[in-house]
Design goal:
The chain has 141 residues and is mostly helical. The chain folds into two domains: 2-102; 103-141. The chain has three helices and no strands. It is rod-shaped, with a radius of gyration of 48 Å. It starts with a helix and ends with a helix.
Length: 141
């Protein structure tokens, strides 16, 4: 009987160790499953974040493109306005010089610019006077 008891004890110890090992294996499997589930959640989160980031990049790029186009159009408009202003000034100077030099009173009356021409002539005379006075003041210093 001692052999049977010993054999039975050995068998139960072995069975218990086998069950413990199986329990440990089951626990390790559960931990691995939990790790895998966690990793899957992390990976899905990262993918969702990446998708959101890419969507934002596309939106920002589209808006930046629109902004660039608006800036380009505004700059082109300003350049053309400057060019037109410069040409109008050149035209005005040419007309003023011709009208003043040749004393074309009839033309200035027809264009209704006689008063403007006289105002410009007076302003130019004042500027000449100011330049003369400035020169005298600088010579004093």
């Amino acid at each position: 009987m001692p052999e049977a008891a010993e054999s039975s004890c050995w068998y139960s110890n072995g069975l218990r160790m086998f069950n413990q090992a199986r329990m440990l294996t089951n626990m390790e499997e559960k931990k691995m499953e939990e790790k895998i589930k966690l990793w899957d959640r992390i990976q899905r989160g990262m993918e969702a974040g990446f998708d959101a980031a890419m969507s934002a990049v596309h939106t920002i790029t589209a808006k930046a493109g629109e902004g660039i186009e608006l800036t380009r159009l505004r700059r082109e408009k300003a350049r053309l306005e400057t060019q037109v202003t410069r040409r109008l000034a050149e035209l005005g100077n040419a007309v003023f010089e011709k009208v003043s030099k040749d004393r074309l009173d009839e033309i200035t009356e027809k264009l209704e610019i006689k008063d403007v021409i006289l105002d410009i002539a007076q302003d130019e005379a004042r500027m000449v006077d100011i330049d003369r006075r400035l020169k005298k003041e600088v010579e004093k210093i």
